[in-house]
Amino acid sequence: MLKLGVLFSGGKDSTYAAWLAKKQGNELACLITLYSENPDSYMFHTPSIKKTKQQAKAMSIPLIVKNTKGMKEEELKDLEKAIKLAKDKYNINAIVSGALASNYQKLRIENICKKLKLKSITPLWQRDEFEYLNDLLRNKFRVIVTAVSAYPLNGSWLGRKIDQAFIEDVKDLHEKYKIHPAGEGGEFETFVIDCPLFEAPLEVRGADFTGDKNSWRMELELG
Fold it and tell me: What is the pLDDT of residues 79-100, one digit of tens each?
């Protein structure tokens, strides 16, 4: 059994990776979240990122938060500090992340883990995207879209649930526009409302919407 720190954005990938790692018999010792000031960070998810506190509470898992300016490469130093804190405070021996297809993210996380003598675990790596999306549904993950940033996605996608209709729609967009079906290229970002790790679902009471053309995002208000 490994004692894990989870690189946690609140989105589907990091949450599902954590659940898979726990199913394999590992302990989720803590969550690690970076609050980035840069909405276009290469490494970190930003929509509704501060709501990870409510998700951590729903999972009864301690949360480590580190702020970062979100500048390319420089933000990795802040990530390393956060992971080192998790190692020192919770005695973790591995990091789990939701990397699915991004070599940029996976290699940088692995380099930090190697430096800190931690194992890097990526349960979703190179998974078939449509199989993965259907697995989310089968395993009762309730996920909503919180940002879009690719043609022809627009503000009407914000708040959409990942359900069978969503999967069919992204399949069409993948075939016509080469949009990554799981949003790995930043085409869309998500937030988990409920899953098997949660003791109770989160309630969405409202949201603030911002954006124009093909770049839209929403900040959730939770109950």
Answer: 999 999 999 999 999 999 999 9
Q: Are residues 68 and 158 in the same domain?
A: no
If asked whether residues 107 and 138 sit together in one domain, one would say no
Could you tell me if 107 and 137 lie in one domain?
no
What burial letters (b/e) apply to 102-123, b meaning 16+ CB within 10 Å?
beebbebbbebbeeeebebbbb
pLDDT band at 102 (very low <50, low <70, confident <90, very high): confident
CATH at 207: 3.90.1490.10
What is the Cα gyration radius of the chain? 16
Same domain, 174 and 108: no
Q: What is the pTM for the complete model shown? A: 0.96
Residue 207 backbone phi and psi in degrees, to 5: -160, 150
Confidence of residue 37 (pLDDT cuts 50, 70, 90): confident
Q: Sheet containing 94-96: give its strands across.
A: 63-68, 27-36, 3-7, 94-96, 119-121
What single-letter DSSP state applies at residue 136?
H
Round to whole Å and give the CA distance between 162 and 52: 19
- CB of 42 within 8 A of CB of 68? no
Q: Using an 8 Å Cβ cutoff, are 112 and 79 in contact?
A: yes
Give the pLDDT band of residue 183 (cuts 50, 70, 90): very high
Distances (CA, A) of 46 to 49, 70, 78, 176: 5, 10, 15, 28
Between CA 161 and CA 62 the distance in angstroms is 27
Q: What residue numbers bound the domain in which 166 lies? A: 129-222
